[in-house]
User: Fold this.
Amino acid sequence: MSITCTLGDILEILLALTFSPLAVLVKEGCGWDFLLNILLFCLGILPGMVHALLVLQNHQRRAVHYTIA
Assistant:
């Protein structure tokens, strides 16, 4: 299984590393993940970044899972 990374993926990662709530908002919309990320971002930038990267990875896995099935 090869890993492909598009320019959009790179921009999403950069957005997650600079301002994580916006990256989660763009990817998941205004929901629990977004509210949790705002809380984590206010508590510390690093927890918000980690959560945003996990949300991006989880979203990508769901997309791959649904396209294969």
